[in-house]
Amino acid sequence: MRFLIGLGIAIVLALSVTVVGYFYPSSETAEKPLPNSDYRFIKTACWFDADWTATITCGELQTPEQFRLAIVILHNDAEQRRADPIVYLQGGPGASARLHTDGIKSWLNWMRYSNTKRDLILIDTRGTGRSKPALVCSEYNQFNQQLLRQNIALGDELAQGYDVAAQCFASSAQANPQLDYRNFSTQKSARDVRALMAQLDYQQWNILGVSYGTRLALEIALQEQQTPQTVKLKSMVLDSVYPAGFGGVQTWPQVLDEGMQQFFKGCSAQHECIKKLNESSIGDVVSLEQHFMQALRNLQRNPISITIKRWDGEAPVNFVVNDHRFLSATFAAVYNPSDWPTIIDAINAVEEGRSDLLKPLMEPFINNSMTSDFNSLTFTAVDCADNPVLSETDYTAALVKYPLLQEYTRDQWRYQLCHSLPSDSPLEKVAPQLPTLILAGALDPITPVSWAQSVNQQWPYSQLRVREKIAHSVLGSDVCLLEHLDEFFNQPEMKFTACAKEIEN
């Protein structure tokens, strides 16, 4: 999922249409389109450097709509190798599988560390990573670059971003009908994944989905139930579950409010955070919440200009930190409790007018928003396809119920691009009819543990494990669970008891 107030945040759920990431035009020459046909998987030479001892298959899945989706299969060389692979479904929507040299090295380390004894299958879904054609827009990229250096009120930024992005979708579809927004949806990606597995040499397979990847997994499970195929989906692990009926603009007031409240409460109980609080000017007289809200007011009156180093070696970025951009960066850091002390430092930096002390919070925020591993237009197209626009009356009621930051969520309904990209067939809620392990972090601000608890009660084939001191993406932090994933995949019908002392339901 991707979350945004004004400027973009990587690895989170968008609150606006503006600057959720940069678009990188393809440098490859245009290729002749394939004739309209069924799905085909074609093996290719690998395009990255990797460990020469690893056994890797690379290829592309060609879809009936003439998309070409990059596929990488990391083969497990364990002596007791299992025959049923794991298909990893990443977050987003719009996030790539990182099928480049650095990404593949990380995946090989992940596979060896998790020791599942299974092949790992990775896919760049439509509009992500190396998939072709690419959903790109130079005008939107230029708008983003200009915006960085300007102090613009949130409402104006939303309005301008809406107009630019809407025009991008229109011009992209006009130039290439394949890039019509209706070709990007969770339903279509689910069909793509199922078609891939039907093309490969496996009899059974498993899914490991994280964040948005859990939503894609659930749609795959629904399609499997409606139209079973020879290759059987055996089991699923859903980490930080984001099912149909949750998310979308209608939940943003609640998610932002509750996520920040969780930070205010949790930071006051975390050792490293307490140490920072004691070293700062935040005391018992002024609560952390009040101190944070004061920082927003200060930045609204007096924004701070900073220069941010680019991680990709490009020229440094001149960036204006105002209130809503500071809120966006803070919410990105709320995902990981280990980053909470950095937020305290940044609050004090605003109070002291110290631009240098803002950089530890803002540098990862800016760099993650510029990564080529995320495509913002794809995010928007898929999110709108999955979540129909609800009434403004319902949204207003949510603002009243969650008032803490309504100044920053008030205009989100009006400027959501889904008004211009109406959904033809929103996702259905589904209770998967196969063994499913749900993992949730009690501190997760973006896919709250209440979502996981709610769906677990409705799914007779599911088990729920809640990690008390973890936020988003449990397997990214929980070493014990990662090491014992094979126990679930080996016997998914059995009660999963690994790491019971470290996890509480």
UniProtKB/TrEMBL annotation:
The keyword Lipoprotein does not apply. The keyword Hydrolase applies. InterPro entries: AB_hydrolase_1 (IPR000073), AB_hydrolase_fold (IPR029058), Pept_S33_TAP-like_C (IPR013595), Serine_prot/Carboxylest_S33 (IPR051601). It holds the Pfam family Abhydrolase_4. Keywords: Hydrolase. Residues 85-264 form the AB hydrolase-1 domain. Residues 411-495 form the Peptidase S33 tripeptidyl aminopeptidase-like C-terminal domain. Belongs to the peptidase S33 family. This is Pimeloyl-ACP methyl ester carboxylesterase. It comes from Cellvibrio fibrivorans. The lineage of its organism: Bacteria, Pseudomonadati, Pseudomonadota, Gammaproteobacteria, Cellvibrionales.
